[in-house]
Amino acid sequence: MDNLQLIKNLAIKNEKKIVMIVIDGLGGAPSYEKKFNTELEVANIPNLDNLARESLCGLAIPVDYGITPGSGPAHLALFGYDPVKYLIGRGVLEVLGLGMQMTKNDVAFRGNFATIDENGVITDRRAGRIPTQKTVELCNLLSEKIKKINDTEILLKPGKGHRFAGIFRGEELSDSITENDPHKEGNKPHKILPIDPEDKHALHTSKIVEEFISQATELLKPYKPANYILLRGFSKYPDIPRMQEVYKFTPVAIAVYPMYKGLAQIVGMEVVDGCENIYDEINKLKELYSKPYDFYYVHIKDTDVLGEDGNFDAKVKKLEEIDKLIPEILSLNPDLLIITGDHSTPSVVKGHSWHPVPVAIYSKDIPTVKNNVNRFTEEEFSRGILGTIYSTKILPLAMAYTMKLDKYGA
Amino acid sequence: MDNLQLIKNLAIKNEKKIVMIVIDGLGGAPSYEKKFNTELEVANIPNLDNLARESLCGLAIPVDYGITPGSGPAHLALFGYDPVKYLIGRGVLEVLGLGMQMTKNDVAFRGNFATIDENGVITDRRAGRIPTQKTVELCNLLSEKIKKINDTEILLKPGKGHRFAGIFRGEELSDSITENDPHKEGNKPHKILPIDPEDKHALHTSKIVEEFISQATELLKPYKPANYILLRGFSKYPDIPRMQEVYKFTPVAIAVYPMYKGLAQIVGMEVVDGCENIYDEINKLKELYSKPYDFYYVHIKDTDVLGEDGNFDAKVKKLEEIDKLIPEILSLNPDLLIITGDHSTPSVVKGHSWHPVPVAIYSKDIPTVKNNVNRFTEEEFSRGILGTIYSTKILPLAMAYTMKLDKYGA
Q1: Which residues, at least 6 apart from B6, have a Cβ–Cβ distance to it below 8 Å?
Q2: Which of left, alpha, beta for A110 (phi over 0: left; psi -120 to 50: alpha)?
Q3: CA A299 vs CA A26, A63, B15, B283, B358: distances in Å
């Protein structure tokens, strides 16, 4: 599945512009209540339907058949990276999602406030699900009192409920260390240890993390049930070749949520700030279209949230809202436009799913009057000329149609 | 993509005969001037249409989505070899294309006559595009005067214009050496060096090549603008398992052009000489059909040339000409017939392209009354029962339908 090196050898820089609109959780699944229709089948989306009729259409599989992807792997696949080979650590995704900036040497992690009893046994891994406001207070306390362990800086950021995330920032840190979370109540927390006892950087890091936990435990004593911290998902900034090197793109990302900005940053995109909603995003796309970028990634979040809520009707409405923006995107006359999702989030599943995602590749240079597709729906796209493809293949196809790939072999 | 070892373990020798007709550059793309039809859609090809209705049809991807293959990788894929794993060097393809025979120890290369000034700077990489006749003369001169460097024989053959190709033939030669072509005018030629300075065979070879260039430069002094040679694409005969070993075939190749004969030879086929055109080829196929071969590769070149010329109408005519030969092929009553191309060469692209190639697998033993396909066209084949497959999968399918593959596992 991974032909990144091949693509890199063949990539050609030219002036043509590719716009990739990622409608998060785009794909749906048939709902019994809706007479076995999907969100896209119920939605009144004439602009997307028209576009589909003139596009190369198909279904895209983010990771593999039957595999439900998280946002990280799903986006990496859309950006052309084998999502099994290139994994972004949980800690990294969490800190990116909270809007923290990472550097190459950082070790990121996810944390819970938890309850520990006088015998050192974890009695509640979620500290009685303390409210977010309490977590904000406690993170502030810890941040204020523990700025550094030796030369290693500690940065914390509260999440929702009992959750927080953080970064160890220093020299010679390693993410090859174990977690203290016993994953079951009634157990003592584990010691943080280097995975390989001979690994000096990991040993060094484990000692720093242990010291941090020890100091935090001291400070949290008065705050039962939130009198302990469980840390997991230790991970460094991933070593992923940048889009500039692989595709020779000058790429830019337009997104509202920090996690998607972070993902874009990991693959080398310039990230635009200041967008609060879809309308801001489309305006930003218009503003930047005359600038010397050649790959525009636009992330639309709301469809995923509504799918996760299981709110079929609201997801339909959101799709209809997005549909009204399609003419504005087309008015830019992009050399090539991709409309797809990172994964499916069917309302009936109330979460991400493994269902293939509709993908439409439109270019004014591709004559496609004969097309088996009449509507922008999962079932019609299954008969599209692209067939069912891995999401990693979308970008190579887009490059081919914009003449950005040289011939392979003589 | 590479299941060669699996196929090899399962391959069974039997009497059934597979005929693979490769129509070079078969696939097309919609032309605006032709009301968005492709060459196949415009062509009047009733025999191919009839065949399609009774065949397993689909689209084949030679290398990968979006990748435009050269003839080498495209053919290797048709012969079932992973075209990314098994690469045939540029020099090898060039000497094969010029009809030279290679042995296992040879190092092949491509060359240009070029112009060098008194300061040793390349002022024209193509020697003012000297005519072919001049290249013939100069190759003769060099061949006559430099037969050997030490024990290494040198064989040259003129190509078109300023181009030529050649072979270093001797013991302990390596193709792991750099090129002298600076790839830009205004630079001095590079020294030929071993890629790994510790590699003794490469060091030995680089010295021989340097000495050849030096002697050639001396001989070419009076022939400005063709007073220098640039060499590149050093490559040895590839180490590819033969079809006899992988498939247990007794294979034979029928082709007009040397490059395709060379490609067939590389994978172990017996190569038939003496064909000048399609009619010769079909006659040869008929003549050999009673002989004890079980895999017949027939290469039809002209469609590719006309596609590269951008001559839509001529490509259509050529397809119609080929269509008239289909009954003759069917009259042999082959156990299995594959009709496909190595890659697409749409007239609108004027070159090889990444577009999937129609593939039809016909056998009198396969009942195919229910078929979504009515015509031998790209769009109809996209709905064929095979779907879109990698070209490497065609041969295993053909083997399955001719009972040439044993069960895998118990």
Answers
A1: B408
A2: beta
A3: 11, 19, 58, 60, 36
Residue type, A379: E
Comparing CB atoms, the residue among A369, A385, A405 nearest residue B68 is A405
* C-alpha–C-alpha distance, residues B213 and B235, integer Å: 17
Q: Which residues of B touch A383 (CB under 8 A)?
A: 383
Residue type, B51: L
Question: What's chain A look like in SS3?
Answer: CCCHHHHHHHECCCCCCEEEEEECCEECCCEHHHCCECHHHHCCCHHHHHHHHCCEEEEEECCCCCCCCCHHHHHHHHCCCCCCCCCCCHHHHHHHHCCCCCCCCCEEEEEEEEEECCCCCEEECCCCCCCHHHHHHHHHHHHHHCCEECCEEEEEEECCCCEEEEEEECCCCCCCECCCCCCCCCCCCCCCCECCCCCHHHHHHHHHHHHHHHHHHHHHHHHCCCCEEEEEEEEECCCCCCHHHHHCCCEEEECCCHHHHHHHHHCCCEEECCCCCHHHHHHHHHHHHCCCCCEEEEEECHHHHHHHCCCHHHHHHHHHHHHCCHHHHHCCCCCEEEEECCCECCCCCCCCECCCEEEEEECCCCCCCCCCCCCCCHHHHCCCCCEEEEHHHHHHHHHHHCCCECCECC
User: What ipTM was reported for this prediction?
Assistant: 0.87
Closest chain B residue by Cα to residue A54: B36
Assign B26 to helix, strand or coil. strand
Q: Which residue of A has its CA nearest to B1?
A: A1
**Chain B residues inside the 8 Å CB shell of A407:** 68-70, 351-352
Interface test with A, best of B71, B382, B393 (most A CBs within 10 A): B382
- Cα–Cα distance for residue pair A328/A319, rounded to 1 Å: 15
Q: Along the 410 residues of chain B, how does pLDDT read in single tens digits?
A: 468 999 999 999 999 999 999 999 999 999 989 989 999 999 999 999 999 999 999 999 999 999 999 999 999 999 999 999 998 998 998 899 888 999 999 999 999 999 999 999 999 999 999 999 999 999 999 999 999 999 999 999 999 899 999 999 999 999 999 999 998 999 999 999 999 999 999 999 999 999 999 999 999 999 999 999 999 999 999 999 999 999 999 999 999 998 899 999 999 999 999 999 999 999 999 999 999 999 999 999 999 999 999 999 999 999 999 999 999 999 999 999 999 999 999 999 999 999 999 999 999 888 765 678 999 999 999 989 999 999 999 999 999 999 999 999 98
Our CA-based measurement puts residue B186 at a distance from the nearest CA of chain A, in whole angstroms, of 23
Which domains can be identified in chain A, with CATH numbers?
4-88+240-401 (3.40.720.10), 100-236 (3.30.70)
Q: Which residues of A touch B (CB under 8 A)?
A: 3, 6, 10, 367-370, 372, 383, 385-389, 393, 396-401, 405-410
The reply to whether residue A6 touches residue B84, judged by beta carbons under 8 angstroms, is yes
Rounded CA separation A273/A20 (Å):
18
